[in-house]
C-alpha cells in the first residue's frame, strides 16, 4: 500500500476559501437585488469611506432586474500573481490566498489585465492594485448582504452550495412540468390557430363576393 504524504498539524495548509454567490432560483428573496451594499461595505472596510469604484467585489447588471456579484475566485495558480513584474502579489500562507503588497506595487496594472474574471481593481489615488483579501477572514460583503446570497466557502462548502443551487433549478423546472395542465399546449398554439382561421375566413369572404 503506497504511503501517504501526511503533513503534521503545524505544517497543515489551511483550506482555500472564497466568497461565493449562492442564489436560489426557487426563492424570490435569495437572489441578488442589485442593491450594491456589498460594494459599499467592502470599500468602507478597506478605505474608510463608501466608494464602489474601490470595492474588491463588483455587482454587474446584466439586464433589467438581473444583477450578479462577481468576486475574486482565489485561484490555485493566480494569473495576477504570475503577471506581476514586481512580485508584489504575495502568498499569505496563513489564509492560503494571495494579496497585494502595496509597498512593492508600482501600479503598472499588469495584474488587472491578467485576471480572467476582471475583478482586480486599480486605485487611481494610491496608484495601486486592489485585490480581495477576504477582510482577514470575515468578509464585509458576506456580513452585510441583505439578501444573504454571499457566503465564505472552502472547496467542500462550494460543492454543497452548487448542489443546492442546481437542485433548486431542477425543482423549479420540475414544478413547471407538473403544473403544465392538460390543454396547455393547445393554449400556447391558440394565437397562431386564430390567425390561420382569420386568414381562411377572409379568403372565403373574398371568394364569396366574386
Structure description:
This protein is an alpha+beta fold. It has two domains: 19-71 and 132-178, no CATH class; 76-130, 2-Layer Sandwich (Alpha-Beta Plaits), CATH 3.30.70.20. It is 36% helix and 16% strand. The chain has six helices and eight strands, in the order βαββαββαββαβαα. A hairpin with a 4-residue loop joins strand 6 and strand 7 (128-130).
- The helix/strand class is alpha+beta
Termini, distance in Å?
Answer: 95 Å
Question: What are the low-pLDDT stretches, counting only 5+ consecutive residues below 50?
Answer: 1-12
Domains (count)? 2
What percent of residues adopt helix (DSSP H or I)? 25-40%
Shape: globular
Mean pLDDT, to the nearest integer, reads: 81
Instruction: List how many beta strands DSSP finds.
Output: 8
Q: Percent of residues in beta strands?
A: 15-25%
Largest sheet: 2 strands, antiparallel
N-to-C order of helices and strands: EHEEHEEHEEHEHH
Strand order of the largest sheet: 1-8
What is the CA-atom radius of gyration, in angstroms? 26 Å
Report the total helices. 6
Annotate the secondary structure layout.
Elements: E1 18-21, H1 37-47, E2 58-63, E3 66-70, H2 79-83, E4 89-92, E5 97-100, H3 110-114, E6 121-123, E7 128-130, H4 140-144, E8 150-153, H5 155-178, H6 184-209
Antiparallel strand pairs: 1-8, 2-3, 4-5, 6-7
Outline of this structure?
This protein is of the alpha+beta class.
From the structure above, extract its key features.
210 residues, alpha+beta, Alpha-Beta Plaits, 2 domains, two-stranded antiparallel ribbon, 16% strand, disordered N terminus
Amino acid at each position: 500500500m503506497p504511503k501517504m504524504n501526511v503533513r503534521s498539524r503545524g505544517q497543515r495548509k489551511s483550506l482555500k476559501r472564497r466568497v461565493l454567490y449562492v442564489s436560489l432560483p426557487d426563492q424570490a428573496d435569495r437572489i441578488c437585488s442589485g442593491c450594491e451594499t456589498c460594494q459599499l461595505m467592502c470599500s468602507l472596510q478597506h478605505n474608510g469611506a463608501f466608494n464602489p469604484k474601490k470595492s474588491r467585489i463588483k455587482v454587474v447588471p446584466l439586464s433589467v432586474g438581473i444583477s450578479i456579484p462577481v468576486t475574486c475566485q482565489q485561484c490555485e495558480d493566480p494569473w495576477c500573481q504570475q503577471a506581476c513584474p514586481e512580485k508584489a502579489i504575495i502568498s499569505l500562507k496563513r489564509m492560503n490566498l494571495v494579496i497585494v503588497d502595496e509597498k512593492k506595487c508600482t501600479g503598472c496594472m499588469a495584474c488587472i489585465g491578467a485576471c480572467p474574471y476582471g475583478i482586480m481593481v486599480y486605485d487611481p489615488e494610491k496608484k495601486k492594485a486592489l485585490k480581495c483579501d477576504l477582510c482577514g477572514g470575515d468578509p464585509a460583503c458576506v456580513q452585510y448582504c441583505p439578501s444573504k446570497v454571499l457566503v465564505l466557502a472552502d472547496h467542500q462548502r462550494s460543492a454543497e452550495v452548487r448542489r443546492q443551487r442546481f437542485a433548486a433549478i431542477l425543482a423549479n423546472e420540475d414544478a413547471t412540468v407538473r403544473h403544465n395542465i392538460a390543454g396547455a399546449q393547445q393554449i400556447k398554439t391558440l394565437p397562431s390557430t386564430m390567425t390561420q382561421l382569420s386568414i381562411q375566413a377572409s379568403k372565403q369572404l373574398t371568394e364569396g363576393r366574386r
